[in-house]
């Protein structure tokens, strides 16, 4: 499952169009308030583009949990097949919901868990909703952008550090959505 101390970014995935195949890149730029440069959501598209801005900017998933789901369902599921943007290892992603965290030099906020949907099942042809219910990763909002690359450290960021980096505090602090 990973720890709450920190982990590593192992893969970066994006696509410019809703339902189009994802492609893996070694690095990409996270854009504050938008998401991953060149990805469908940062471009204003995507299947879930009508949902609140903070929820649709970026998605993260744990590599080990993808492997667990693939074994459980009996399909050759890869992290890219899950349509999540950032693949991590060594960090408990659900623990980041409601918290500030960094991927490399980028500052993010964990908005909510990201359970799978029937859209993912349609695209993969695999029955994934039940198996991924608690292993679908998290949605995050980008507050300070930066280039992120495979191998970057993923770590929780204390409130004080986030505030020093310009994160909104007090009544302006983002509110997570529990799903």
User: What is the total domain count?
Assistant: 1
Order of helices and strands: EEEEHEHEEEHHEEEH
Strands, count: 11
Specify the number of helices: 5
Query: What is CATH's topology name?
Result: M1 Pyruvate Kinase, Domain 3
What Rg, in angstroms, do the CA atoms define?
15 Å
Helix content: 10-25%
CATH architecture tag = Beta Barrel
The description of the largest β-sheet is:
7 strands, mixed, barrel
Structural class: alpha+beta
What low-confidence regions span 5 or more consecutive residues with pLDDT below 50?
A: none
The strands making up the biggest β-sheet line up spatially as 1-6-5-9-8-7-11
**Cα distance spanning the termini:** 19 Å
Question: What does the average pLDDT come to?
Answer: 85
The CATH superfamily turns out to be: PK beta-barrel domain-like
> What is the top-level CATH class?
Mainly Beta
Topology:
Blueprint: E1 7-14, E2 23-25, E3 27-31, E4 35-36, H1 53-56, E5 58-62, H2 63-73, E6 86-89, E7 100-103, E8 106-113, H3 118-124, H4 129-132, E9 138-144, E10 146-149, E11 153-157, H5 159-164
Parallel strand pairs: 5-6
Antiparallel strand pairs: 1-2, 1-6, 1-11, 3-4, 3-10, 5-9, 7-8, 7-11, 8-9
What does this protein structure show overall?
With 179 residues, the chain is α+β, with helices and mostly antiparallel strands. It has one domain: M1 Pyruvate Kinase, Domain 3 (Beta Barrel). It has five helices and eleven strands. The strands form two sheets. The chain has a seven-stranded mixed β-barrel. The chain has a three-stranded antiparallel β-sheet with strand order 4-3-10, with no helix packed on it. β1 (7-14) and β2 form a beta hairpin. It is globular, with a radius of gyration of 15 Å. It starts with 6 loop residues before the first strand and ends in a 15-residue tail after the last helix.
């Amino acid at each position: 499952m990973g720890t709450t101390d920190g982990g590593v970014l192992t893969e970066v995935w994006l696509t410019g169009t809703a339902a189009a195949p994802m492609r893996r890149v070694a690095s990409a730029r996270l854009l504050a308030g938008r998401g991953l440069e060149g990805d469908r959501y940062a471009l204003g598209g995507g299947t879930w583009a009508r949902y609140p801005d903070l929820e649709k900017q970026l998605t993260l998933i744990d590599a080990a949990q993808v492997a667990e789901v693939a074994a459980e369902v009996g399909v050759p599921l890869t992290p890219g097949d899950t349509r999540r943007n950032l693949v991590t290892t060594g960090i408990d992603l659900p623990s980041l919901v409601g918290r500030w965290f960094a991927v490399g030099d980028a500052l993010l906020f964990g908005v909510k868990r990201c359970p799978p949907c029937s859209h993912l099942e349609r695209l993969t042809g695999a029955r994934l909703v039940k198996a991924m219910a608690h292993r679908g990763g998290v949605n995050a909002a980008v507050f300070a952008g930066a280039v992120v690359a495979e191998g970057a450290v993923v770590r929780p960021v204390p409130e004080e550090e986030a505030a020093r980096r310009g994160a909104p505090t007090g009544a302006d602090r983002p509110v997570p959505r529990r799903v």
